[in-house]
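Try this one yourself first.
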């Protein structure tokens, strides 16, 4: 009896330690032709496909699978609501066709929503053909939308690889005989406590002030060390920018400065100035920020002028450091929706 209790306690401790000390998942991004994949730190993967690059009717198909054994793939479809005007009564009774075979009515009304859910049999019909050059069509008597399958196989194989399903019975592309006992386990979103800081800068250092050059050199040294791609003196050397300093606590400050500006985007450089060790240390957080407010760094950058694709970023101050809590892409620039149609997260977190 004592052995059984000890044995059970040991197994429980092992299970708990495996959960507590599980290696954090690093999210990935992957793109091939008309399809792309984003997997997050939770283990969830999202694969999105679109019409061909020069296709006339913008459309997108999203396939989502969580990490862990015996996880079904969920599917959604979206048609353009960006620059397209469809008579409301023409967007009803839309059906899904896979290789010209009718897979049934898509449940919902595209005149009311941009995105509708696919049924499980409809998703399964797509996956069954995922290793082939397959025709994926949405249509009714008025309109016809075609999702390209060019890149579908590569993206789903990458999903299988990330979730460690290759060779298992649950793989989407390279199935095998192994069970799913060793596939990637899902992890929860990590939690970050937001420690708010003063919203207004405590100091502005202008280019004509004595302290400017010394601070600029400090920031640029850190930028070079941290491989900042866009924040270099090639942009602002003929038009120096004001440096703003924000108080984080008694020994740490934040510095911001406009790093670059394009046709429809601009990026702030954001640096953490740390004097806790008695030595001035400087870290570039990002050169893609668009604002800083009360301990939150936020960035939003268009993929192109029409703003049908947007990258979003967020870092939160936890009292000692900035933690990235958001890395999101809205999907390829294919004209499906203003602001993008999907939320393809590489980093997911809960901010409290």
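Now uncover the answer:
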């Amino acid at each position: 009896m004592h052995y059984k209790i000890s044995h059970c306690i040991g197994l429980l401790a092992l299970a708990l330690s495996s959960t507590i000390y599980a290696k954090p998942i690093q999210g990935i991004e992957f793109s091939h032709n008309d399809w792309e994949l984003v997997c997050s730190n939770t283990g969830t993967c999202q694969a999105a496909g679109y019409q061909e690059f020069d296709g006339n009717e913008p459309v997108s198909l999203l396939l989502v699978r969580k990490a862990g054994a015996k996880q079904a793939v969920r599917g959604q479809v979206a048609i353009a609501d960006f620059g397209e005007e469809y008579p409301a009564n023409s967007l009803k009774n839309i059906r899904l066709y896979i290789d010209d075979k009718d897979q049934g009515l898509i449940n919902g009304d595209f005149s009311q929503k941009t995105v509708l859910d696919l049924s499980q049999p409809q998703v399964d019909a797509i996956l069954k053909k995922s290793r082939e050059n397959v025709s994926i069509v949405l249509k009714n008597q008025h309109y016809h939308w075609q999702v390209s399958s060019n890149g579908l196989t590569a993206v789903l194989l990458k999903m299988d690889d990330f979730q460690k399903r290759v060779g298992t019975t649950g793989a989407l592309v390279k199935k095998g005989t192994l069970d799913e006992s060793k596939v990637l386990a899902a992890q929860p979103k990590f939690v970050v406590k937001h420690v708010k800081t003063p919203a207004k800068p405590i100091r502005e250092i202008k280019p004509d002030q004595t302290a400017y050059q010394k601070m600029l050199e400090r920031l640029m040294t850190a930028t070079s060390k941290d491989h900042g791609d866009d924040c270099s003196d090639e942009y602002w050397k003929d038009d120096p920018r004001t440096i703003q300093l924000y108080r984080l606590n008694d020994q740490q400050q934040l510095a911001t400065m406009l790093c670059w500006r394009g046709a429809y985007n601009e990026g702030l450089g954001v640096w953490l100035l740390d004097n806790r060790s008695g030595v001035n240390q400087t870290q570039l957080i990002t050169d893609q920020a668009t604002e800083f407010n009360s301990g939150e760094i936020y960035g939003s950058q268009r993929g192109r002028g029409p703003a049908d694709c947007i990258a979003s970023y967020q870092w939160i101050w936890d009292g000692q450091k900035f933690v990235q809590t958001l890395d999101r892409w809205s999907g390829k620039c294919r004209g499906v929706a203003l602001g993008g149609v999907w939320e393809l997260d590489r980093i997911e977190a809960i901010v409290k």
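Discussion: DSSP finds five helices and 22 strands in the chain. The first helix runs from residue 2 to 20.
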